[in-house]
Amino acid sequence: MLTRSGWLTLLGALVAAGFARVFAIAELWIITGALVVLVVVCVLWVRSTTVRIRLHRSVSPSRIHTDDVARVTIVATNVGRNVTPVVQLSDPVAGTRGAQLQLAPLGLDKAAEAAYRMPTNHRGVLSVGPLTLELTDPFGIARRRAIAAERVDVLVFPKVEALGMPRMGGDLDPHGSAMNVNRLAPAADETFSLRPYQLGDDLRRVHWKSTARTGELIVRQDESAWQDCTTVALDVRVGAHDAESFERAVSAAASIVTSAFADRHIVRLLTSADLDTGSGSGSSHEDALMSTLATVCVGPSASLRSMVETLRQTGEGGLGVVVLGRVDSTELAALAAMAHRFRQLVVVVHNGQTPQRASVQRMTVIALGDAGELSERWSAAVRMGRRVVPA
After folding, report:
1. Which residue would you say has higher pLDDT here, 185 or 55?
2. Is the pLDDT of residue 108 over 50?
């Protein structure tokens, strides 16, 4: 295709031809012919030039949080038989002007690397690409484009703070309720626990009597490896938040989820919009929960009453954390009424008034102001056992 300069060149040739005809000036005919030939030559040069470049685009780090320094790195390798001409790489980035990179000529089997920073000031899905390669003739009259890499969607996770998680004494098995410890030994002297063999278990722990009786490998487990359980509930009602307080609430929920996984808890995430991820552990479940928090938004039909009722009916013990926006005494009383479903219930309130002590006799309340500072107040409330930490 022709560039803007190419179309202007053709327009100049047309104007020169018009003046040459009207005023019978032979030199203008020569200029007209030269301009037309120039355009044709440039188009043929672009169409006949073969560029064989292998492009690899990568994003680092692999997990990006809000305000992190994130880079997109592009590695170009000449896989052709000739030195490449100068080409331009264009990589659109949602919400920005994108990246424009000039690639200098590459020799045979030579590679070059270029990088640019990604905007990470907002959580959510950030679209990058498609990456296009553009070849232009030396006069800038004709160009040819090709897609070198498809569009990718990069998740920007909420900003997180490291929090100290309380030790609850264990609630569920290490497989997230997927497998309970079976006690198969009937004899009085065999009081240890038994479970099916898993890849990586020490064969010296195989319990041969149970293996012979059941027909499958059974290993002994001298002590049960229980895990703590953490349930995180996020209020996403429209009226409970403004834009800033909602982002702080999402960040608080993400901080609790991340810290719970770091302490090898089994984690469950709920929202007042009837989202329930279920309990689980492991990196895949953590990625699923963090992806949910990266894209969560306020819901017009969200109901705090429905979320509280779900917690009351399906509370699994362990640590329960409810992250709220604006809250009144009636809603706090409803939360306190189901606090018995957890070993410890923590309520994080954003932009709310500090509740009275009588309202929180059965739970710990952390009231955050505009500055946030969750980690400091969390430590004071959860680790020191205080009932109310005011803003």
Report:
1. 55
2. yes
- Phi/psi region, residue 372 (left: phi>0; alpha: psi -120 to 50; beta: rest), is left
Euclidean distance between CA atoms 152 and 55, whole angstroms: 14
d(CA 142, CA 136): 6
What would the pLDDT profile of 317-345 be if each residue is shown by its tens digit? 788 899 988 877 788 888 888 888 888 88
- Contact between 345 and 362 (Cβ < 8 Å): yes
Tokens of 378: 């969390």
302 close to 237: Cβ distance less than 8 angstroms? yes
CB 214 within 8 Å of CB 237: no
